[in-house]
Amino acid sequence: MPGAHGIFILASIGGEAGARIAELQARHDPKLARESPPHVTLAGSSGVGPILPDATREQVRAALAPIAAESPPLTLRFQPPHRFMQTNIVVLPLDPHGPLRQLHDRIARSGLRFGRARFTFTPHATLSFYPTLAPAQLRELLAVRLDAPAVIDRLVVSYTRAPQPAVTWFELPLGGASSV
């Protein structure tokens, strides 16, 4: 989340898909792999911007806990990778409609105050962000096909003030009680 400031809501990607994405990140973008595990950003960069940094942890938890508790875990299919908006960033997109959009929209209507979004809602897992990829690396990443689904079963809320590393505030399992 370079250049970011505010509170982000991420959906962790675990299981086989998360392990494969982590392996690809480690090979093609070690800095990205060190910064955070595989995830989809639900609030912070697309659709809605980050939650404004003056929100307290308690306010954010109070707004998101009911949404997480009432939202079932999601099993989603990745689309083929592509370069993100004329950059060297390579992502695995997810369908921006359906249950993921519904979760995003519930978060957007939570009563929390959000900064400006830089992009329309474009859910994805990032494979490579920082390096300029050699043509062979780019071809390799664009040829990836991930058959394993993205299993999204919790929200991770993080405070970000780049260039410092993000600090996880708390996690909320989907369909269940919160954890620290």
Shape: globular
- Show unreliable segments: none
Name the CATH architecture: Alpha-Beta Complex
Percent helix: 25-40%
CATH class category label: Alpha Beta
Rg computed from alpha carbons, rounded to a whole number of angstroms: 16 Å
CA-CA gap between termini: 22 Å
The largest pleated sheet is described as: 4 strands, antiparallel
Mean pLDDT across every amino acid position: 89
Q: What fraction strand?
A: 25-35%
Indicate how many domains the architecture comprises. Answer: 1
Q: Report the count of strand segments.
A: 9
Order of neighbouring strands in the sheet with most strands: 2-1-8-9
Protein name: 2',5' RNA ligase family
InterPro entries: 2H_phosphoesterase_YjcG-like (IPR050580), Cyclic_Pdiesterase (IPR009097)
Pfam families: 2_5_RNA_ligase2 (PF13563)
Can I get a quick summary?
This is 2',5' RNA ligase family. The protein is an alpha+beta fold and 180 residues long.
Q: How would you describe the overall organization of this protein?
A:
With 180 residues, the protein is of the alpha+beta class. It has one domain (41-173): Cyclic Phosphodiesterase, Chain: A, CATH 3.90.1140.10. Helices cover 29% and strands 25% of the residues. The chain has helices at 15-28, 30-35, 57-70, 99-108, 135-142, and strands at residues 5-12, 39-43, 74-76, 82-83, 90-93, 124-128, 150-152, 154-161, 167-173. The protein has a four-stranded antiparallel β-sheet. The chain has a three-stranded antiparallel β-sheet with strand order 4-5-6. It has a two-stranded antiparallel ribbon with strand order 3-7. The longest helix is centred in the N-terminal third of the chain and has 14 residues, at 15-28. The two termini are 22 Å apart. The model has no long low-confidence stretch (mean pLDDT 89). This is 2',5' RNA ligase family. It comes from Roseisolibacter agri. InterPro entries: 2H_phosphoesterase_YjcG-like, Cyclic_Pdiesterase.
